Amino acid sequence: MPSRVSGALTQDWEPAVLHKSKPNALALRSGAAVQTVKKFDASSNKKPATVVNTRKLDEVTEPAALDKVSTEVRQAIQKARGR
């Protein structure tokens, strides 16, 4: 449990200001050379383009739909799964 502070409590209404340090800005102002490197793929919110080989898709000779199996085969598979 937190301990209680004895005595009168006062509120501090002074604003608290937080700043990030900017070492590059200091170096630029002093005239020093600063090297900046862009990260790989930075600032690009793009999905990679899918590469589709259309000739390969056109040459496909397989049928679009598969042949259906008989009822007996389906029932045998269902019975085997139930065991």
UniProtKB/TrEMBL annotation:
Signal peptide: none annotated. GO terms for molecular function: DNA binding. Keywords: DNA-binding. Pfam families: MBF1. Residues 11-69 form the Multiprotein bridging factor 1 N-terminal domain. This is Multiprotein bridging factor 1 N-terminal domain-containing protein. The lineage of its organism: Eukaryota, Viridiplantae, Streptophyta, Embryophyta, Tracheophyta.
